[in-house]
Amino acid sequence: MRIIGGSFRSRKIKYKIPDNIRPTSDRVRETMFNILNNLIDFENCLILDLFSGTGALGFESLSRGAENVTFVEKNRKSIDIIKNIALDLEIPKNQYSIINSDVIKYLRNIDSITQYDIIFADPPYHSNIYNDLFEIIVERDILKKDALFIVEFGSSMKIPELSKYNLLSAREIGDTSFAIYTL
């Protein structure tokens, strides 16, 4: 795994990824961030990286100038990888936070009035969590106006139809697909 663009461009991440973690591939991230760069300026953005895994999407965002990333992940081994990558990249602690929690529980109990510019969600491909996730994000009002919501899913799955969101772009790359929505 490597950082594709920005200030950490070409930095390789050299940690053993546990078997149950599926990081977003370099090719998918490159395509995703090429599209995102045409939609939003990452400078000063607040990012929420749900189901963070290795944190690849959040670190890519920080590399491109995001102000802050909140990583939410329940797997302890993933949390350790995210912490180590942040240390290796020498990212100041005020630019990220790591939440060790189930995503749905975290979103249901979020106390903050923080609204995010971008939310990434990469849940396990064959989970039934997508509808709950979309509903909670709207219900909790955690996306800023014109913010972006990016969701990854298996290519064998249908693109999630979200009545409250507008689909801006969708791509299929190998066994991974992603869709970019806005409210």
Structural write-up:
With 183 residues, the protein is an alpha/beta fold. The chain has a single domain (26-182), classed as Rossmann fold. The chain is 28% helix and 27% strand. It has five helices and seven strands. Strands 3-2-1-4-5-7-6 form a seven-stranded mixed beta sheet, with helices on one face. It is globular. It starts with 25 loop residues before the first helix and ends with a strand.
Instruction: Kindly identify the CATH topology.
Output: Rossmann fold
Shape: globular
**In the CATH hierarchy, what is the architecture at level 2?**
3-Layer(aba) Sandwich
What is the helix tally?
5
The quaternary structure here is single chain
SS elements, strand count: 7
Helical amount: 25-40%
Give the low-confidence spans.
Answer: none
Class per helix and strand makeup: alpha/beta
Q: Mean pLDDT, nearest integer?
A: 89
- Give the N-to-C terminal Cα separation: 31 Å
Strand order of the largest sheet: 3-2-1-4-5-7-6
Q: Which series of helices and strands comes N to C?
A: HEHEHEHEHEEE
